[in-house]
Design a protein that fits this description.
Helices cover 41% and strands 16% of the residues. The chain is α/β, with parallel strands linked by helices. The chain has a domain at 10-19 and 71-113 and 237-452: Rossmann fold (3-Layer(aba) Sandwich). The strands form 4 sheets. Strands 1-4-5-15-10-11-14 form a 7-stranded mixed beta sheet, with helices on both faces. A 4-stranded parallel beta sheet has the order 8-7-6-9, sandwiched between helices. A two-stranded antiparallel sheet has the order 2-3. Strand 6 (134-139), helix 6 (143-155) and strand 7 form a beta-alpha-beta unit. The longest helix has 20 residues, at 390-409. It is globular. The structure holds pyridoxal-5'-phosphate. The site of pyridoxal-5'-phosphate (PLP) has 21 residues, from helix 6, helix 13 and helix 17.
């Protein structure tokens, strides 16, 4: 099948077509992003942030430049698996009897099995360039921890990872992967940090949360001069690095003369969603008529409904209040989400950039229940062969729902979703789904109100 015909099933780019710049959506927002605040309620100083991040990363975090160059060293590591294929899911379309054209960007082809190395490699390189030799981080599903472990190996950086307890227990082979790439892995909450010890004192059987694991990793980085911290999502620079996904997808759509009507991605902290959607929103900002009616749908679990039921407010990025406060949709920093299997979507907050775009109605948030996501993921696996990560199943659910709507209306919409990762280390979750042990869970309104009552008072 020709690579450029509109019937192509895999639209590939040459290695030389790996984008040379990342896209920074902050340049195109109607108002500049709200600054992160310190405990005194004032914009946090760069010196304070520099306790845990190198200056070259902070420059990206605060930049209002539209295009930022991708260092050649990063493009060379990207080339181990990028450009990632854009695939047409023709068998899924046939199974659904939909006139819609369904495409997915296959980010599962990276060494770690997801989109996360796009930022991990960049972060490791910028830290290396700043002379850093040791980093800490947290991981929920294990995807980010694996990615930073791998990226650390590429640039000679030691990596210590705090892995949310529930995932540490459910996904032993993710731990083995991180160790293969030379990283140290501890279950969070741990005895290694003050935040971990406090959480264990309150609940010795704590399942942990991303917010808590972040507290542990930040606490350690702040207390050691030789160590910085790397975050796998949420922050502007992480979303920036992930725009490689959408930038490649745009080139791929150009090759087949199509343009998406709907872009869908799972949303945990929001990096992969922003990564696929923002480069298309850049077209809209530039007055490209093809993007006028573009819909961008961010999909989250009903068990952790940050964008759909959270408050838009300043809150801490971690459970213990070590990080600056960010203006974002949040369920409250001490929100303890249930141990659903989509570990990467169990975060109380969402990227400030995505939050702002939700407020500006350029991004539509949707929450879906767990069982329906596994149903969609299984359908996709049977049609297209790839077994998706539980996080990615959230996007597939929404994509199938949109395709079924097209069946009703007869519209031939072009749907693009982000296949953010494969599920090869999530088969225990699939098994639990098949055996009927998984349940839907809607977070009770009273519990959300209780954690929102602890939002920091600002202004
Ligand atoms: C496969 C996969 N998809 C999506 C996510 C959600 O993260 P983010 O919203 O930052 O893309 C994760 C997080 O771990 C993940 O592992």
């Amino acid at each position: 099948m020709s690579q450029t015909s509109s019937q192509s099933m895999r639209i590939l780019l040459d290695q030389s077509e790996i984008p040379t710049h990342w896209y920074n959506v902050a340049a195109d927002l109607s108002t500049p992003p709200a600054p992160p605040l310190g405990p005194d309620g004032k914009p946090v100083s760069v010196e304070k942030m520099a306790e845990i991040f190198p200056m070259n990363i902070l420059e990206q975090e605060m930049s209002l430049e539209r295009w930022l160059p991708i260092p050649e060293e990063v493009r060379q590591i990207y080339a181990l698996w990028r450009p990632a294929p854009l695939c047409r899911a023709t068998r899924l379309e046939a199974m659904l009897k939909t006139p819609a054209k369904i495409f997915y960007k296959n980010e599962s082809v990276s060494p770690a099995g997801s989109h996360k190395p796009n930022s991990a490699v960049a972060q490791a390189w910028f830290n290396h360039a700043a002379g850093i030799r040791r980093m800490t981080t947290e991981t929920g599903a294990g995807q980010w921890g694996c990615s930073l472990a791998f990226a650390g190996q590429m640039f000679g950086i030691e990596v210590r990872i705090y892995m949310v307890r529930v995932s540490y227990d459910q996904k032993p082979f993710r731990r083995s992967m991180m160790r293969t790439w030379g990283a140290e892995v501890f279950a969070s909450p741990s005895e290694l940090t003050q935040s971990g010890r406090m959480a264990l004192a309150q609940d010795p059987n704590s399942e942990g949360s991303l917010g808590l694991a972040i507290s542990e990793a930040v606490e350690e980085a702040a207390s050691r001069a030789d160590t910085t911290y790397g975050l796998g999502s949420v922050l502007n620079h992480v979303v920036l690095h992930q725009t490689i996904i959408g930038l490649e997808a745009k080139k791929q759509f150009e090759k087949i003369g199509l343009y998406p009507d709907i872009i869908i991605g799972p949303c945990g902290g929001g990096s992969s969603f922003g990564g696929i959607a923002f480069p298309f929103l850049a077209d809209r900002a530039a007055g490209d008529k093809r993007a006028n009616n573009l819909r961008c749908i961010a999909v989250e679990p009903t068990s952790c409904p940050t964008l759909t039921r959270g408050a838009y407010a300043y809150d801490f990025g971690d459970a213990s209040g070590y990080t600056p406060m960010m203006k974002m949709f949040t369920l409250g920093h001490d929100f303890m989400p249930p141990g659903i299997h989509a570990g990467g979507l169990r975060y109380h907050g969402a990227s400030p950039l995505i939050s702002q775009l939700v407020r500006e109605k350029l991004v539509e948030p949707v929450a879906v229940p767990q069982l329906a996501t596994f149903e969609a993921g299984t359908q996709f696996a049977c049609a297209e062969g790839i077994i998706p990560a539980p996080e990615s199943c959230h996007a597939i659910r929404a994509a199938i729902d949109e395709a079924l709507r097209c069946r009703e209306t007869g519209e031939e919409k072009v749907i693009l979703f982000n296949l953010t990762g494969h599920g090869h280390f999530d088969m225990a979750a699939y098994d639990r789904y098949f055996s009927g042990a998984l349940e839907d869970y809607e977070y009770p309104a009273a519990a959300i109100a209780a954690s929102l009552a602890h939002l920091p008072k600002v202004g």
